[in-house]
Each structure stands twice: as structure tokens, then as C-alpha cells.
Design a protein that fits this description.
- There is one protein chain.
- By secondary structure, this protein is an alpha/beta fold.
- It has two domains: 2-138, Rossmann fold; 144-205, Arc Repressor Mutant, subunit A (Orthogonal Bundle), CATH 1.10.10.10.
- It has helices spanning 11-22, 36-45, 60-72, 93-96, 108-119, 127-138, 144-147, 151-161, 166-173, 177-191, 196-205, and strands at 2-7, 27-33, 50-54, 77-82, 100-103, 124-125.
- The chain has a six-stranded parallel beta sheet with strand order 2-1-3-4-5-6, with helices on both faces.
- The longest helix has 15 residues, at 177-191.
- It is globular and about 55 Å long.
């Protein structure tokens, strides 16, 4: 029996995933929660083998929640479900943090296959998502610059995109303002932009920022 934890901010999505999994006798739903903090609370009471995390854009609170789960529950297999072709995670996450990626368009049998693979300690990328990633890169539409960002650079980028000031970012990440200025300068260089405005536009173009 594979124990699965569901994480999504929308109750309809959680309920839909629960119904899909309950049709498979090999799976048991260990819980259905809104965010990483609630997931950690559930995991302290009962174990889970795999967590399905629905993410539309890489919001910093969601990414921080995923990191918290990885640090405190290292045996938990994490599968991200997204709808954006250019969805990216910080450099190294695909090796050290997340074990699987699925599209929201993935059929039920593929969701089940991904859970089995990740529960067995292997990695999984959904067929549709893999095809779209390859085509996007062949067509020159990939989000490669973002995939080269470190975890900290990724966090700074998302906070800049939220309109946070240097002081606010410094407080949130427990870093000095000087260090934040350095990260912002480094981001401009890596992304090939001249200003924070261009940086935010680029992030929005690649689906890394939710529409207002």
C-alpha cells in the first residue's frame, strides 16, 4: 500500500485527486492539505510515501514549503504537478529535491505510474510534459536561464517579482542588504537584462509569475 499526501490550495483539486486515487486499491490517501506547513503537521502524525504538490507558478511560499518537507521528511517522494510548459525549479532541484514532474493534463494511469515509480525510489517525468519541454527548447522557447539559477537566486527573483524592497527581501531571507544587491546584480547578468523591470517581464513571459 502506497500512502499519498495531497497538497494544493484549491479544495476542488484536492477532492478530485482524492477520488482518482481512491479508485486504486494500492493507494491510500494519507491527507489532503493546503500548503507545506499543513503537510508537515500531517506527516508528524502519520507517514506518507509520496506527496503530490500542485504548483501553477513557482511562488516562494510554495518553494519554501517544498524545501521544508525535503529537509524534515527526506524519505518523502515529491511529485510536482504543473500546467505551464516552461515551469522551472532552481538548479539542482531535479536531482536533490523533486523526484517527479507531471502535467495537469496527465491521464489517471500516468499519475498512478508516477506515484509507483517515485515510491520505489525512481524518478518520473510525464510524457506530455517531457514532450512539451523538448519541443519548447527545439523551438527556442525554453526557460533555460531560470533553470541555471541557484536556489537563493531563485528566491530573490521571486521576491523582486512580488515588488519587495531590498529591505524586505533582506529580512525575509535573513541576508544583509548588500548581499541582496549582489544577488540582484548577478540575476541581471545571468538573465541578460538591464533592470528589475525587464527581469520581471521575462519571468512573467515564461510563466513564473501569476497574472494579476
Amino acid at each position: 500500500m502506497i500512502r499519498v499526501l495531497l497538497i494544493d490550495s484549491h479544495v476542488l483539486v484536492r477532492d478530485g485527486l482524492r477520488r482518482l486515487l481512491e479508485d486504486h486499491t494500492e493507494f491510500v490517501v494519507a491527507g489532503a492539505v493546503t500548503n507545506g506547513r499543513e503537510a508537515a503537521a500531517v506527516l508528524r502524525r502519520r507517514a506518507a510515501d509520496v506527496a503530490l504538490v500542485v504548483v501553477n507558478v513557482p511562488e516562494i511560499d510554495v518553494l519554501d514549503g517544498i524545501l521544508h518537507l525535503r529537509r524534515h521528511f527526506p524519505s518523502l517522494g515529491l511529485i510536482l504537478i504543473t500546467e505551464h510548459v516552461n515551469f522551472v525549479v532552481p538548479r539542482g532541484w531535479a536531482r536533490r529535491v523533486v523526484a517527479g514532474f507531471l502535467s495537469k493534463e496527465s491521464p489517471v494511469d500516468e499519475v498512478a505510474a508516477a506515484i509507483r515509480e517515485v515510491a520505489a525510489g525512481r524518478r518520473y517525468v510525464g510524457r506530455d510534459l517531457a514532450r512539451r519541454w523538448v519541443l519548447a527548447r527545439l523551438n527556442g522557447d525554453g526557460a533555460a536561464p531560470f533553470g541555471e539559477l541557484s536556489q537563493r537566486e531563485f528566491q530573490v527573483l521571486l521576491l523582486v517579482a512580488q515588488g519587495k524592497s531590498v529591505g524586505e527581501i533582506s529580512h525575509r531571507l535573513c541576508l544583509s542588504p548588500k548581499t541582496i544587491h549582489t544577488y540582484r546584480q548577478r540575476l541581471r547578468g545571468k538573465l541578460g537584462v538591464r533592470s528589475e523591470v525587464e527581469m520581471v517581464r521575462l519571468a512573467h513571459h515564461h510563466g513564473m509569475i501569476a497574472d494579476a
